[in-house]
Amino acid sequence: MKLQKLIEDLDYINISGDLEKQISGIEHNSKNIKENFLFIAIKGFKLDGHDFIFDALSRGSKVIVVENNNFYNKRDDITIITVKNSRIALAVLSNAFYNYPSTRLNIVGITGTNGKTSTSYFLESIFKNNQWKTGVIGTLGVKINEQNYNIDKTTPEANNLQLFLHNMLEKDINHCIMEVSSHSLSLNRVHKIQFDIGIFTNLSEEHLDFHKSLDEYMNSKIKLFYMTDKINIINSDDEFGKKMISKLKDLKTRIITYGINSGDIQAKNIIQMTKNISFDLVTSLGNINIKLNTPGIFNIYNALAAISCSIALGIDLKTIKQGLEKLENVKGRFQVIKSDEDFDVIIDFAHSPDGFKNVLKTVNEFAKARIITVFGCGGDRDKSKRPKMGEIAAKYSDICILTSDNSRSEDTQVIIEQIIQGIEESSYEYFKIPDRKKAIKKAIEIARPYDIVMILGKGHETYQIINQKKIEFDEYKIVKDILDSYRQK
Ligand SMILES: CC(=O)N[C@H]1[C@@H](OP(=O)(O)OP(=O)(O)OC[C@H]2O[C@@H](n3ccc(=O)[nH]c3=O)[C@H](O)[C@@H]2O)O[C@H](CO)[C@@H](O)[C@@H]1O[C@H](C)C(=O)N[C@@H](C)C(=O)N[C@H](CCC(=O)O)C(=O)O
Ligand SMILES: Nc1ncnc2c1ncn2[C@@H]1O[C@H](COP(=O)(O)OP(=O)(O)OP(=O)(O)O)[C@@H](O)[C@H]1O
Asked: Are residues 38 and 128 in the same domain?
């Protein structure tokens, strides 16, 4: 694409150099630059992209977007574009480069602290049951026609995001379900995405290293609801959901609310079972009984979010029910593995105080014997949640085994000591086993019939990041192997 055309929507301060150049790609990381790519220099949290301009030039870039007004262009063959905000420029240019893909797709954006992935998979199952060709972008990767692509973020950087949307269109996808993280809203990764529907699941303490306060965290999430064309769907039982509804009074698009205690769309007559949960869906279109193949009141909320969105898009209740009931399990979300010794192992991605509370409370409702919980906390992320997760795990478990999660650059022992601060007041007994595989082995060794071993925090992930190195760690396979090795004895 010619540079002149590419920059039509860009708000720039200054341009030096010619606009006749052909651009073959857009990139913010100099390492990924190929011949005739446009490089956007971003002032990051750790590094400054402006320091990599010469690297980008050496790899074939001839057009550079900078935020730094003083950047001096010494070369005639290079075009320099100065902008106020490089991250916004990345989003604007990527949108134009891929020919505005979001305007040709029906896009549902899901935001909230917990439940985004689960809601997106409930929704995908309903959409597919309605014969809609559906793509998904989120923590479990990008899914286009049963093909999965790994991504390193929940919501990809703007250039990759626009590329995935473009690829969906190439494969005739008409509906895209996207998890929209608060980071992506704050850092303008989704800027220029035209959402049809926005969904808010809930908000609780998380990412306070990045957002500094819960109100700031909420304000970043609220941005999504100003980006939607059709309808916004909000959990009105959630404290922050209620706050959002009152803050969004000036919104032009309609709001549909859902909940168990309030809302336009409600769940009543809930029956909780060990491996599933059923409820009567109450709507203005009629009522219908629905059975989810996964337990937990929190999953009713996730299902209600998906149901509200489907109703807003005109899908009938019978198709919605069938779609929800077809979904067996979302990877790493309350994934049950049975042992020969009559105890269950459950792998779950809970990694926030609220996630811990929800999942452990659910298990307490059906546990016939002890609950043994194996968990750690991520390094280089919000430290304030560590003692809180310790306190909740101790409150709802009989035995805790403290171990590593993704320690990243931090020392696992130090993280464990911070978790312990939340549990030690109760003179609660726990084990400290930093090696996660050994910790899982210990839990399985001490488990007795009817006990439940909860392994929290990593869910679907197949790696651990320890000492900044990514090592293979497939929790599901590890549990299976340990159970098999006992079986063979
Ligand atoms: C806090 C955050 O989101 N940080 C993101 C941010 O990093 P940064 O600004 O610090 O980037 P940086 O490393 O300082 O580098 C600055 C610039 O120099 C460039 N560079 C760097 C090195 C080089 O050799 N050449 C080069 O050009 C980089 O590409 C970048 O553009 O911008 C980078 C590039 O745009 C992102 O990769 C990085 O995400 C990191 C990987 C991350 O872990 N983010 C997490 C917290 C995140 O976004 N999580 C949410 C989900 C959260 C949840 O709900 O659980 C998500 O959506 O995934
Ligand atoms: N509605 C909910 N409310 C509270 N906790 C939930 C809810 N739904 C799921 N959880 C818990 O949070 C964990 C993560 O769920 P899920 O992956 O759906 O959330 P997410 O918002 O996508 O998380 P992330 O942003 O970290 O990817 C689940 O394994 C479960 O323990």
From this structure: no
